[in-house]
Amino acid sequence: MGKTTKSYKREQGLTIEQLNAIDLLVAGETDQEVADKISVNRVTVTKWRNYDIYFQAELNKRRKEIWGVSIDKMRALIPKAMERLEQEFDSKYGWKIALEIIKLAGLESNHIKSIGHDDADKILTELAEKRITEKLFTSTNEYSKQQLLQDFQKRLNND
Question: pTM for this structure?
Answer without folding.
Answer: 0.59
